[in-house]
Amino acid sequence: MPTNRNLDDMTQEIPVTYVPFRNAVFLSMAVGYAEAIGAEKIYIGVNALDYSGYPDRRPQFIRAFQETVTLGAAASINGLPIQIETPLISLTKADIVRLGIKNKAPLHLTTSCYKGGEKACGVCDSCRLRLKGFMEAGIKDPITYE
């Protein structure tokens, strides 16, 4: 688990916490389900800004996956295309925090920590990006850290 890295370094290389093709797996399952129930949209909370170097969060990846859905889903061929929506993709972590507050999201029930457990570690890349987002939003993070 990467800890105490410089925030700029987090986007320079793919971290050891990368789960290979994770978002493609999630999106594939979501497309299958969406097609089965006749849904027109899939929402995924990927973020291309303030991210930790994961390639499957980038707009290029989402565009390419959208093309795959358009070409490979029967719903699209039958005139009922499934659209992948990424409402957070171009927001900063601070913007996301502010949006969460605006929408009364239970941020006290969320965590970003790679370590997991009752308290967030506060030093892993994910915790540091979360803390930075709350700080830049001018809001105290409501979770407990070690």
Describe the structure.
There is one protein chain. The chain has 146 residues and is mainly α. The chain folds into 2 domains: 1-90, Rossmann fold (3-Layer(aba) Sandwich); 93-146, no CATH class. It has helices at residues 22-37, 59-72, 74-77, 93-102, 125-137, and strands at residues 41-43, 83-85. Helix 4 crosses helix 5. A two-stranded parallel ribbon has the order 1-2. It contains 5 helices and 2 strands, in the order H-E-H-H-E-H-H.
Descriptive tags:
mainly alpha; Rossmann fold; 146 residues; globular; 2 domains
Topology, please?
Blueprint: H1 22-37, E1 41-43, H2 59-72, H3 74-77, E2 83-85, H4 93-102, H5 125-137
Parallel strand pairs: 1-2
Helix pairs in contact: 4-5
Mean pLDDT: 91
How many structural domains does the protein architecture include?
2
The shape is globular
Please write the string of helix (H) and strand (E) elements: HEHHEHH
Q: What's the CATH architecture name of the largest domain?
A: 3-Layer(aba) Sandwich
Helix fraction by DSSP (H/I, runs of at least 4) = 25-40%
State the separation between the terminal residues, measured CA to CA: 16 Å
Helix count, DSSP H or I runs of 4 or more residues: 5
Largest sheet: 2 strands, parallel
What's the CATH H-level superfamily name of the largest domain?
HUPs
Rg calc: 17 Å
Please report the total strand number as a whole number. 2
